[in-house]
Hints:
This is Glycoside hydrolase family 15. Residues 225-589 form the GH15-like domain. α7 runs antiparallel to α8 (432-449). A hairpin with a 7-residue loop joins β4 (37-41) and β5 (49-51). 29% of the residues lie in helices and 20% in strands. Strands 1-7-8-9-10-16-14-13-12 form a nine-stranded antiparallel beta sheet, with helices on one face. It has twelve helices and 27 strands.
Amino acid sequence: MGDWRPLHQVEGYPPIEEHGLVGDGATCALVARDGSVGFLCVPRFDSPPLVCPLLDRQAGGEFRLVVAAAEEGRQRYLPGTAVLVTEIRSPAGTVRITDGMLLRAGAVLEEEAPAGTGTFLRMVEVLHGRPEISLSLEPRGGATVHPTGDGLRLSCPGQRVEVALRWSRPLAAWPAVLRLRAGDRFWVALQWEPGAGAPTAADPFADTVLVWRRWSAALHLEVPRKDLVHRSAITLKLLDHFANGAIVAAATSSLPERIGGDRNWDYRYAWVRDAAYTVFALRRIGLPEEAGGFLTWVLEAVDTPGSPLVVYDIDGHAAPREIVDPLLSGYRDSAPVRWGNDASYQVQHDVFGEVLDCAFQWAATGGTFAPGLWGRLRALAEASRDAWARPDHGIWEVRAPPRPFTYSAAMCQVALDRAARLSRRLRLPGDPLRWEQDALTITRRILTDAWDPQMCTLTEHLGPGSGLDASLLALPLRRVLPADHPKMAATCRAIVARLDAGGGLLYRYLPEESPDGVGGTEGAFLLCSFWLVDNLVGQGRVEEAAALFERLCSHANELGLLPEQIDPGTGAFLGNFPQGLSHVGLVSSAVLLGRAAHGLNPELSTHAWFR
């Protein structure tokens, strides 16, 4: 268990970093170090939130186990699991709360099948003393409460869902005040699946712990910081929709990228862009089934008429249109709160390369393509031949007028390169020679049209008047340019100099130089710093890369979880949390450093190019 830390709030809210994540492969919840639930949607990740006090401490509802006069708290996970333990200390005694979403006995998490029971179980144990504990559930927008034999049934019109509360011993009133003494145990179960039964085992978490530990024992980790890589793998699994392999970008919506700003987005959906990065990372640490499940989901989602979308809901449909919630004030008054995401309807040409790279990885694992699907993939490759030079909204989904982003052009190169390789290796119909030539043309144009000789760097878009963009650090990861190519190495130096946020942290870009149509500033974007680690390894600067990796790992909270962004001034977490791509970045950098430690060629350098 970690050190005891004072419980505190900032402007009435627990800090984002003082939360843990629990889930069951259909939904998830954030649990704070003070015992409150900050965000919970049922029955799925993208359902309207049952409670979201992180987005409004008054109007967001609550699900709380509160220890009176609590002073200190600490959190840990049961090893190898997603079962969270929170200990809270007050002058009257010490309480342990164990939180988890229950899984079916014998569930196999590698299978594409639901594993949860629709039960969020919270168990309270008094370790010493006689603390007073308050228990309450108030769904956002209110609910109609119906007493039952062993608890309550709540009808929640705002969420269009019914939930049940069960508890292990009778309560005199609701909300309840528990007066327990050392050795006493009490549990409360929130259930949303019809027919879910009450926990009956002496240890109601036992089956769930066994399922998680059987799954996590398969991880192969010859890497630095195995503890954080292991926790990152479990976190990515918690963002996985077990039933079909979709992986949501983050557990939450609208946690701000700047306190008081309006850079607040809904990340409870699956981005195709994330697929290739996530699949690559999962395969490297011994999770081929999860990688294959996500690849299957991506290819099924895009195997429909029309252009592929940038982001889908977990069913493979367009994410819902973005709306602003006028009833919630936002985390620390950072409005607006948004539901849905309009990125589904943006033009982002990098999606061609993202899809073809997923297909390439699918083939690398032995996957095959039905004629109709290969026909769709061929069409995407052909579309990328013209799209690469046209303006779009780019990887960062700007809301300013489109520009011919360098990253988007690079991903069109990836589309053509991967299509050519697939056609040759699998003897699929197509024109691999022309695709290879077109890919080479795009690479040359990037090296000329995106190069700024005065700044001595590649820039964010093709043509003059362009700013710096940390997404260029991803070009070696996507095999567009080697990390040690002179212009790529110069770009890396320029990004470190111009986008530095201190301590190895990087900004994605500078909005004053690269207008994004949103306005204001944001925090440092963690994924970009992990990309920097990868580039340093590819340039043979392994000691520098390892030192930077350790600095980045130090930003993880006591549970090993990472946000989207970091406030460079305070170290506080910003953006949606936990953020899948931040954990993907940690895993990928650890794998590259592990290879380097074993004397293997840096995969992103010219020495191992396209091996």
